């Protein structure tokens, strides 16, 4: 009688371990009358930790990444839906902590940097995309995300460009990965280079992609850096409109609709109210506090959206383009700021 071959200990134990973890993830536990799976429980606990005094933008992003890569996001559709809205309301809330006169001065300081960096990044992105033989739409989306405001710019330019879902995913994945790195890296570099509050605020507004990570990094650096970074970054975000119109022209997309970033008007309105309506000064700190909590939750949701599938979808050449553009704009802007801004 032929005996069965005993299972290979290494391979079968790995498969058994993987199967056991998959089974564990699908198990349901009754919590306060609701059937919840381990990914749901971990997601909820991590989200709750972000609301505690220990919660911070870098920690929130790190927790979101752990949830996404180890357990998986149990609510991916809802996370994507609320991330944008939560960020927009948080930005409006931050306006109640800003003075219009100081913000105007910061906007004037960053205007020349904004124009030069946007035009330079879009031009350089076109050349790098052709050199790496990346399709024009994906290359342009990555360039827009780097030049203006990350995922918001890609989401606005994509429909104008009539980009395919795969092209949008690659561009968003590239920008979000680099964005996550920047949130941890920039404050450390700023302290290491002994940058002033104004220097760091201007640098991260130019060199970090998404508004969420710009505000997160700047708030970690100091209040003056936060005001400068938020003002300059939102001024950059307004360039979504001319860049979208230029995209429709150069890519010959007649009838394309341009999406306006209306939440920036809310930020300006909140800032004007805080400056010229003294009666609101008592409520302003609460609005800013809630806005910072909203921003922390936004970064958690962004991290939870970076699944292994998103990371795999990026590809080598688009990621190389994103890194090259990011390194160049970061290095050049830092050199200029160090020599021109006190």
From TrEMBL:
Main location: membrane
GO CC terms of this entry: plasma membrane
Localization in the cell: Cell membrane
Coiled-coil stretches noted in the UniProt entry, renumbered to this chain: none
Record's keyword terms, sorted: Cell membrane, Membrane, Transmembrane, Transmembrane helix
Membrane-crossing segments per the record: 29-49, 55-74, 86-104, 110-129, 141-161, 167-188, 200-222, 234-251, 263-283, 289-311, 323-341
InterPro entries: UPF0324_pro
Membrane topology: Multi-pass membrane protein
Pfam families from the UniProt entry: Cons_hypoth698
Family: Belongs to the UPF0324 family.
Protein name: Conserved hypothetical integral membrane protein
